[in-house]
Amino acid sequence: LSPSPQVLPPPPLVPVVPVRLVGSTNDTSRTLDPVPEPQRDQTQRQQEPLGSPIPAGQPAVPTKPVGPWQDCAEARQAGHEQSGVYELRVGRHVVSAWCEQQLEGGGWTVIQRRQDGSVNFFTTWQHYKVGFGRPDGEYWLGLEPVYQLTSRGDHELLVLLEDWGGRGARAHYDGFSLEPESDHYRLRLGQYHGDAGDSLSWHNDKPFSTMDRDRDSYSGNCALYQRGGWWYHACAHSNLNGVWHRGGHYRSRYQDGVYWAEFRGGAYSLRKAAMLIRPLKL
């Protein structure tokens, strides 16, 4: 008789996951079909605010100022104060990115955004490398573009979060960069400040993992369990690339929502999340 296959234990949950789940349990898990090839559609449509505490009152509208720019900070310094879609030159390529030009002096390049579950983030290394989604909606700018941007000099990272009750929180890191693909886009973080709680420093110095490229510290594949690419450890205190579960609290076999453990816990899927970077020296 052949030996029975080894069954791996489920990945550990973060310590702050509530013991009993309450509230809405709507699960908007996406199918496992591959996402389309990355598209940078510039269709004009109004963008919802990224979430508290981004100023409201003047909704940002996608625009394409003369470019391409080195980054959103360069466009801001050139006098472009409108938030929207800008073309950026990263390495030998030009990519479209959302520039947030009205928050804390502007100059922020949005590298990730979740807001409505319209984009499937449970996808492959290649998609995470080059980027996917729409810069005027849910999207991931791409590991390679982010590496190229942060390799030019010191950057800061701002993480904006919003729960289903409209409560916002932020996490700021005074250093942020990625190593090259040869080191699996390993995360480098500075010191944390903010009111969201620090759910990313546990992932510092960890390589990026996806469903088809497992580089985490766990015996199984965290990206498969948590249904999205991230800088997994064993497994995570945060994953902003998980399944966008509607309503907040959710029931799932594994901890696979869009979560930031120190803000609402690992069993609460956030309504909105965004990651923004900016050069430290403007």
From TrEMBL:
It is found in: Secreted. SMART domains: FBG (SM00186). GO terms for cellular component: fibrinogen complex. InterPro entries: FIB_ANG-like, Fibrinogen-like_C, Fibrinogen_a/b/g_C_1, Fibrinogen_a/b/g_C_dom, Fibrinogen_CS. Residues 63-281 form the Fibrinogen C-terminal domain. GO terms for molecular function: extracellular matrix structural constituent; protein-macromolecule adaptor activity. The gene is ANGPTL6. Keywords: Disulfide bond, Glycoprotein, Secreted. Residues 1-15 have a biased composition (Pro residues). SUPFAM superfamilies: Fibrinogen C-terminal domain-like. It comes from the Eukaryota. It comes from Chlorocebus sabaeus (Green monkey). Residues 1-66 are annotated as: Disordered. PROSITE patterns: FIBRINOGEN_C_1 (PS00514), FIBRINOGEN_C_2 (PS51406). This is Angiopoietin like 6.
